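Fill in residues.
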């Protein structure tokens, strides 16, 4: 069955200053999914926009292709907000995870997502990135790894919603 998941996220950005770091959502993300290919639940699946398939971490010893992709990646920037809406399509089939003795679900039992934000430090002229993850304590204040300028506040967990 083809399933679709929507992931939304929002960061609060400090008002414009001389320390403009050009924050942007990177077109890659990770989501926990139940994978019928390796027969395991709660697998970290790596997605990259434009790729025809994702990569499942499998059982930890070997990764394998996953029948999944980023179908939509929409970014909105406001004066003090950086907003993302991504849509993921993936194939799912019922199975039973023998190692954990549990049935698979269309969206794993406790789904989590990791999203990446890139930036350019105006002082060092070096690029850097940080990630936000749905299963961490908030708020999180991100600062530049080079000049320690405040970059963004991650005040609410990314939303993960099964659409179909």
């Amino acid at each position: 069955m083809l399933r679709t998941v929507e992931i939304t996220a929002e960061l609060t950005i400090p008002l414009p200053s001389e320390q403009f770091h050009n924050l942007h959502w990177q077109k890659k993300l990770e989501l926990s999914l139940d994978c019928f290919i390796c027969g395991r639940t709660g697998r970290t699946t790596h997605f990259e926009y434009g790729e025809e398939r994702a990569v499942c971490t499998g059982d930890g010893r070997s990764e394998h292709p996953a029948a999944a992709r980023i179908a939509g990646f929409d970014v909105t920037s406001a004066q003090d907000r950086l907003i993302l809406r991504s849509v993921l399509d993936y194939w799912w089939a019922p199975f039973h995870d023998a190692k954990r003795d549990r049935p698979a679900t269309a969206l794993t039992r406790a789904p989590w997502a990791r999203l990446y934000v890139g930036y350019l430090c105006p002082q060092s002229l070096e690029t850097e990135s940080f990630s936000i993850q749905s299963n961490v304590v908030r708020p999180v204040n991100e600062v530049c790894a080079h000049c320690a300028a405040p970059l963004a506040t991650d005040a609410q967990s990314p939303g993960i919603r099964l659409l179909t």
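The mean pLDDT is 94.
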